[in-house]
Amino acid sequence: MKKTTLYLFLLVSFSVLSQVKGRITDTKNNPLSFVSVYLNKTVTGTTSNDNGDYVLNINKKGKHIIVFQFLGYKTVKKKVNITSFPFELNVQLEQEDVQLAEISISTKDNPANRIIRNVISNKEKNTDKYAKYTAKFYSRGLYKIKDAPEKFLGQNLGDFGGGLDSTRSGIIYLSETVSEIHFQKKPKKFKEKIIASKVSGTDNGISFNRAEDANINFYNNSVTFGNDLISPISTNAFSYYKYKLVGSFYNKNGKLINKIKLIPKRKNDRVFNGYLYIVEDDWAIYGTDVSVTGAQVNIPMVDVLHLKQNYNYSAVNNAWVLISQSIDFKVDAFGFKFDGRFSSGYSDYNFNPTYNEDTFTNEVLRFEKEATEKDTVYWNSLRPVPLTLEETTDYKFKDSLKLVRKSKKYLDSVNKKQNRFNLLSPIMGHTHRNSYEKWAVSYNGLIKDFNYNTVQGFNASLGFSYFKEQNEIGKWWNAGVKANYGFSDKRLRPTFFFTKNWNNISRPRMTISGGVAATQFNDREPIMKINNTISSLIRRLNYLKIYDKTFGKISYSEEIKNGIYLSSSLEYANRKPLFNTTDYSFAKQGHNGGYTSNNPSEVIDVFEENEIATLNVGATFVFGQKYLSYPDRKENIGNEKYPSLNIKYTKRFGASNAELNSDVFTVNLKQDINAGNYGSLTYYLRGGMFLKKKNIAFMDYLQANGNQLIFPLDGELNSFGLLEYYKFYTNDKYAEAHIEHNFKGAVLGKIPLLNKLNFHLVGGAKTLVMANKKPYTEYSVGIDNIGFGKWRFLRVDYVKSFHAGVKNNGLLFRLSLF
Known about the structure:
Layout: H1 2-16, E1 19-26, E2 36-39, E3 45-47, E4 53-57, E5 62-69, E6 76-82, E7 87-88, E8 91-93, H2 111-121, H3 123-128, E9 132-145, E10 151-152, E11 155-156, E12 170-184, E13 189-199, E14 222-224, E15 228-230, E16 241-250, E17 256-264, E18 273-279, E19 284-293, H4 294-297, E20 302-314, E21 319-333, E22 336-350, E23 363-367, H5 376-382, H6 389-405, H7 408-418, H8 425-428, E24 430-434, E25 439-443, E26 451-453, E27 457-469, E28 476-486, E29 491-501, E30 509-520, H9 529-539, E31 546-561, E32 564-576, E33 610-622, E34 626-630, E35 633-638, E36 644-653, E37 662-674, E38 680-690, E39 702-703, E40 729-730, E41 733-742, E42 760-770, E43 776-788, E44 791-803, E45 806-815
Parallel strand pairs: 1-7, 1-8, 13-23, 23-34
Antiparallel strand pairs: 1-4, 2-3, 2-5, 5-6, 9-12, 9-22, 10-11, 12-13, 14-15, 16-17, 17-18, 18-19, 19-20, 20-21, 21-22, 24-25, 25-27, 26-27, 27-28, 28-29, 29-30, 30-31, 31-32, 32-33, 33-36, 34-35, 36-37, 37-38, 38-41, 39-40, 41-42, 42-43, 43-44, 44-45
Helix pairs in contact: 1-5
């Protein structure tokens, strides 16, 4: 321990004594933040903080040339002769004198267009110069809030970690990350190892400043920045942008830099506003200074996202490479006013790394041992960008505050306020917490499960549950009871559950449950209770069909290997038919033909009471699944190149009537495909087959998800738009397919006048094939992103169906918020 302390002391001492530091201002002595500072002819350096302060680590004394580069300002090269450390060097930057040379401009020759075309044609050549590299990555995240509300939806919001002043304003999130990254262009690979991670006011120090998320690359056709946006140097960029050459200037190396203004052809397209700086002859990016609105990224709560990037010339590979980047944002929604910045810097580039078969795996992020436990001494030696006074104060205050807030006395006082029972608690629910001992008792409230159906009438549930956290890496258990009561059938249906989870890595989870429940005949549960309540009471249409099930069940699931998930369950149940007990509705008696019976099929008679056991064994395969390894959990992020496959075998046995026993296999295949500037494609395929065709109970048939609502609140992809709920079922074999493409702005954005509305065209097709039945097919065309300003949640689809020579059509309205 003494050796470690001595080593850190010497390390910090050497670091402090090997620094060039100072302050960077403009000609009016205003501090300049995010200025790139580096040694001449290198791509290694630092950036200034929000106060304009910088620290540049230099190991050797003697003569050096230090470069200060900032978009919009003249690059400064300072020759210094360092005789001792630390060495102070303050710098003043002048605004760049951008001039437009006298260029003969004809209506056919826009000089900005010529520059952009050259950049597009040289994209591959320029990015091939750093087709693979390793680098060190530093990122800092900062969130601030102003005039924070004390409550939201009736819930007390607290003090956001203790960072608020008397006006409820201040820092609510501050984090830093230092990591090593590995990159390869073809095939595209990325890996990051977190060396150190720190979050103000927390013990675990796990930040979400990922280098891959910060890899905003304009050389790609599609740029991920809040959403997938069209790059201003995309191959089809001229369909979305106009360009104007604002002027040019020479940098300190004599390179001519062109400042190009980006002019979106349509205000709300998925495009950038701002400026690109392009190096003449090299046709490479020198810098970016761009922004997007919440409407453009389709994130309504965001006012604006502002991005700045600085590139530096690397003589090693004759390339312009990214050295620093900042993302500023402003959010104003629901009474919350946030602003903040994520800044990052790249250093120690190696453009000729040696990779082997083990360099890149499906693990794209991992933490070095004890990366989240580095102390202040270590961070002071490692941090490339100095903290501002505000940030230093926040770290010190919250680091001391967290010790207090972990104490039993403090946690008990907080819980005392949180646990207060109010007038709405019986209706909305209530949770009583003991944060120190890490347990909670919850009451679910009457409104949570309140609904209406023609079997139970109005019905509601009362439930209680207990949750106990056993450690910080995902070991917990949860148990609860619930009683549902129908006011028309006068039946009480109690249920219970017990769930245990062992960790957040493979997530082994076991659940034991049982009781009595009113269950949908279609086990895929296509009808939401709120949908049925509204349709029954307003339109006298009782779509929900249910039966009574008394059951006991045990289930288990786990990710047994990366991308392979195992699930299984065993249930024994007594199943009884149910019948309507009420015809109450707000609508008149004969409206829409009146209520129908609770029998879901006009062909099959109501089933007889039976007892049966059901065994389910399933596996899901997420091919090529990428994942992030955090100290306390594994976070799976999938792989958009490949689909995910689910296979399930269901065996029903032990029935009093042997004819009810059955064996069935089902298979699901689904994938989301990012089509870049052309939107996104999604498909879902499902098939099933019984090993033997038998006269089984209706709830055991394979069934499709239908829809008979104009404004459904369910997910639209794996359900049909105009299909009756219990129209298609089989005890033989069947297959269904759903495909949908959202073109975003790729189609409607090119139509004059219509493009100003910023609507998104959506096209889809669905088909269903079952043994001994004619196919059912639907085609749809819709408009998404409907709304006003940046609030665009509505989607409208026109659907046309075909079945057995009968055609049908209709409109569907959906909220994309769901």
